[in-house]
Give the backbone structure.
Amino acid sequence: MLEITLLAVALSMDAFAVSIGLGSKESINHTGLALKAGLYFGIFQALMPLIGYLGGIGVLGWIEGFAPIIAFILLLLIGGKMIYEAFQEGIEEDIAAVTHKMMMVLAIATSIDALAAGFTLTLLDFNPLLACFIIGVTTFIFSFFGVFIGSKMGTWLENKAEFLGGVILIGIGFKILFF
């Protein structure tokens, strides 16, 4: 359960960072924006690992002996990408208006990592549907509150969240590889 919780927190950090950025830019109706961000990001973060898990099941028979190494490499790459992005300007800098189309694009962009991380669910002794539900709910909560944090504090926490998420994913990768 601890691994799934850490995975959920780590995967939600991209959406959390974007939500902070959205909250800092949007000056009206924070509750509506928070619900929109929570729902879009939460749903996509729940669906993408499920797709990754189903894809992982399909190829697990072929690569079963190498699965921990592949999972480690995927988590290392995803975590490294998140750490790298923590030092870059966020996409929300270019956002002029928060539309449903824009939220869909952001939800897909922030959940691509979850697709790859879903493969690692094949290696964990945990119900994958429950894991995806936990990931989705965690992302909803982080995204919802991220909008309010961004509206009150600005974007100073944005990069720290992405950095922490990357470190957690790399840590999970090492656990899968060595334990």
Summary: The chain has one domain: 2-178.
